[in-house]
Amino acid sequence: MLKVGVLGAGHLGKIHLLLLQQSSNYELVGFYDENAEYAEKIATEFGYKRFDTIAKLIHAVDVVDIVTPTLSHYKCAKVSIKSGKHVFIEKPIATTVEEAEEIIALAKEYNVKGQVGHVERFNPAFTAVREQIENPMFIETHRLAEFNPRGTDVPVVLDLMIHDIDAILSVVKSKVKSVHASGVCVLSKSPDISNARIEFENGCVANITSSRISMKNMRKSRFFQKDAYISVDYLEKVCEVVKMKDAPKEEDLNGFEMILQNAEGERKQIYFNNPEVAPNNAILDELETFADAINNDTTPVVTLEDGTEALRVAYMIIDSMNENN
């Protein structure tokens, strides 16, 4: 079993602690949180071992799970990697692209593995249709959340939209050509709602909307490709695939088919598929797959490079917002 320690015992850190304790791939050694009073409370309440310095925790483990505020991701990753430890880093990977690129370089230099916590890659609704998303040419996503002060120290792009940026980059195998975006500050000092249009070199266009001041929660994506439409509801964990194929001859129809005919007289049959979505805990799955990558010396599902590219595109969106505001 891999010995693991958690840096940061906030809202998400506590979830990681609970799941790592349940995992059969990890031995949870303990945690560190810079708020000593709060850390003592967590240790007493849940029975986790509390370390009083980051250095002591790092020394005691094989894997460091970094669930601290984004501003400290780079510092925590740097000291962990230089100690020869594998790192799991919550999204976004770092505060800046330059920091993220240095994390990549350090991981290569010290021959350790790293994974970034883009958890929607493990959402069962997405994984159920992932292999059916082939060369999408138009993508539309909406990620709307009710207001929560936690996370408002950064723009909504880094808080929410980056989830969809990463998912889109994982299925569009083309470089970003251009980005056009706008955003509005409503309750926070940084934008609370943003819309971005990403154009890729292969012609694909992604239209992404994120808000943290909505009346209801929504996390939906729609992928349009030749002869298919695929929808993913990350929140409700359901998906749908609508496909088209050449319609049978009239004499072969039974009367129940859905047939469409275009202006050129071509007839297509529409058929629906609701793939089975197997229930899972996406956070546990991402942690378990990282253990598999370490144990089997394979590439993590969400690499440090993936996390860096998502951050790079996020800052392209933020730059475009700043230009247009």
Automatic annotation (TrEMBL):
A GO term for molecular function: nucleotide binding
Stretches assigned to the GFO/IDH/MocA-like oxidoreductase domain: 151-216
InterPro entries named among the record's database cross-references: Gfo/Idh/MocA-like_OxRdtase_N, Gfo/Idh/MocA_Oxidoreductases, GFO_IDH_MocA-like_dom, NAD(P)-bd_dom_sf
Positions of the Gfo/Idh/MocA-like oxidoreductase N-terminal domain: 2-118
Gene3D superfamilies attached to this UniProt entry: Dihydrodipicolinate Reductase, domain 2 (3.30.360.10), NAD(P)-binding Rossmann-like Domain (3.40.50.720)
SUPFAM superfamilies: Glyceraldehyde-3-phosphate dehydrogenase-like, C-terminal domain, NAD(P)-binding Rossmann-fold domains
Name the record gives this protein: Putative dehydrogenase
Organism of derivation: Flavobacterium croceum DSM 17960
